[in-house]
Each structure stands twice: as structure tokens, then as C-alpha cells.
Amino acid sequence: MLLATGLYRASHLTAGITALVHAPTAGVAVRALLGVALGTSLLLYGAGYAQGGFGPRLVWADVLLTGCLLPHAVLWASGGHVPGTGFWALLLGGSAAAAAAAGLTARQAGCAVVLILAAHVAAQLQTDAARPLTGHLVSVLSSAVMARVFWWYLHRQGTLLDEAREQAVRAEAERARQAERMAHHRALHDTVLATLTTIASGRVDANAPGVRERCAREAAYLRRLVQRSEQAEAGDEREGAEVPAGEALEDVVAAAECLGLTVTAQYHELPPLPGPVAAALTAAVTEALNNVRRHAGTSAAYVTATGRGGGVTVTVVDRGRGFDTEAVLVGGRGTGTGTGTGLRRSMHARMREIGGAAEVDSAPSEGTRVELRWPA
């Protein structure tokens, strides 16, 4: 509204400047009054832009000075000859009415417009020009009405935008909470649940140093999860931090070996990875090794990691019993051991979230090959 009414005022001031340029005989007083109109306009709109909105006191000052007193002052200074060198003063009444409609309450704006119309009727009746009065009064009134309608429309649209923004923020917060819950679910599935399942099955000695070390790490993770300390949980996953891919994968291999799995690992020219990428990739490898230990019927796995143009490809292979990948991934069927949950949520979902991809190749009695790529 400041911009719209300000441009409207500028057009009227331009008309005044043009009139005086083409009237070299115009008196000094008329030129001084145009300067007053310029100063009042700069004060009103300059303060409005600085404050982010019209100030009611300045609007009333503009109504009284520019809208009501200026036409009479110009009429007096020009000796009653308002048309020609002085009709611009009447034009300013329209922009003064528009500013009042945009910067005052509806009742105050109505009173301001009535004052402007009364002042212009009085000024027009004192001039010796036979200029139609009705058209000018309609112009002033229509300027106020259009400005008020425009103000109402913008206010309504702004309210709708605010409501839509609040809804979007609430929806985004809910999505973030859901994503956090899913991330915690996947992390628990890959770590704590896998460890507890292995210990409960009796396949490892719960008092073995490696098992106890892994349990201690995962207990610390659970404490961080309860405390909601994202910085402590993220560690090297902080924004912008890079993690050596080989070191991150070696930690995963060591953790799997603590639970009795024999892992043969080979690494070749691995680049450092962004923290979130390294976290998702190692979590997917962890789940692949968990599946070998729990479902493959073998105690040996092979991990190969190779750098490729700033990215990385990791393969996890076992020579176990294998499974029907289509039945597990698409239909959710299979052995009933949870392989489908691990594949869908822990591997494919994690890799998609970082712009990577996971592929699983397996068949009954032919082992399993998992390939993880970042970027896809």
C-alpha cells in the first residue's frame, strides 16, 4: 500500500512540477507551496517505509496540510486562478484520500475523506474557473474507495498466507518428528535389537570382552537417545564434517566380529565422506552384516569397498542359504525372520535419503550379494 499510494502521489507531484515548468510567471509563493507538498510527501512515505507502515499522525497531518489547506493556499497565492498553475493542488486531494484509506481505520478514513471533499468544494467555489466540480469530487472519492478495497484485499491475502505458512510449519515439524522416529527405529533395529537377538540365541558368549564392549557402546547410544542430544548422537555427522570411509567401515566390521561373524574386508582408494552419508552408509552395511549373521546360516561374510569419482561402492557378500528377494522386498514374505524389514527400512530407505542406492541379489541356496552406492 505504501508503494501503490506513493506512486499515485508521485504522479500528482509530477503534474504540479510540469505545470510550474510551463508557467514561468507562476509566483514564488506557488512554487514554495509545491515544495511544502513535496516535503510533506517525503516525510509521510519516508517514515512509512522506515517503520514498515503508515503512521496515523503523519497521515492526519498529510490530510490536513496536503488535502485540505494546500488548495486554499494555492488559490490565495495565485489570485484565484487555480486552473493552469494551481489545479495540481486539487489533484493532490485524491492521493491524500488514498493514503488516508490505507493508513487509518475505516471510520477515521471516512472522516478524512469528508474533510478533503469539503475543503475542495470550498476551494472550487472560490475560483473564477468554470471547471466541473462533480468529476473532481468523484475522482477523490473513488481514489479513497479503491485504496481501501486494495488494502482489504492485501490484508485478506496476507492473513491467508500466514495461515498457510503456519500449517506448513506444523506439517514440516510433524514430518521431522516422524523422520526422527523412523531414524531411531532403524538405528535400534540395526544395533541394540541385533545385539540382544544374538545374545538371546546363545550363539555368542555374553561375557566375552568384544560383546561387552559392543553392549557398552549401544547402552551409551540409548542414553543419548533418551536425552535427545542430537549433537552427542551425531558426533562426526555434524553438518560439513567429513569422515574417512575406511575408518567408519572398519568400526562396523569390528562390531560385527564382536558378535562372532568372520568378516574379510578389502578397501581401495576410499574418499572421505560427508558425515550424514557416512552414517547412513555404515548403518546399511551394519544391517547387511546383521542379516548374514542372523539369516544366512553362515559365519563368514566378505566386505569390499571401492572409491569411484568422489563416491563409494560397498558390497557385502555371503555364501549362505540365500532367499527370494522379490518375495521379501515386494510381498513382505519370506522366512519370517525380519529380513524384509531390514532391507526395506535400514538399507534401501537409508541409501535413498542420502541420494544413494542399494541393490540386493540373492536366490535360495545361492548366497546373497548386497551392493551399496553413493551417489546413486
Series of H and E elements: HHHHHHHHHEHEEHEEHHEE
Low-confidence stretches: 229-239, 331-338
Please estimate the helix content: 55-70%
Outline: rod-shaped
Strand content: 5-15%
Structure summary, number of beta strands: 7
Q: Biggest sheet, open or closed, and with what strands and sense?
A: 5 strands, mixed
Q: Would you tell me the structural class of the helices and strands? A: alpha+beta
Mean pLDDT: 81
Placed side by side, the strands forming the largest sheet appear as 2-4-5-7-6
Helix count, DSSP H or I runs of 4 or more residues: 13
Distance between the termini: 50 Å
What Rg do the Cα atoms give?
Answer: 39 Å
Task: Write structural notes for this entry.
This protein is α+β, with helices and mostly antiparallel strands. It is 67% helix and 11% strand. It is built from 13 helices and 7 strands. Strands 2-4-5-7-6 form a 5-stranded mixed sheet, with helices on one face. A hairpin with a 2-residue loop joins strand 4 (300-308) and strand 5. Helix 3 (56-77) packs antiparallel against helix 4 and helix 3 (56-77) runs parallel beside helix 5 (106-126). The longest helix is centred in the middle third of the chain and has 58 residues, at 133-190. The protein is rod-shaped, with a radius of gyration of 39 Å. It starts with a helix and ends with a strand. Mean pLDDT is 81; it is low at 229-239 and 331-338.
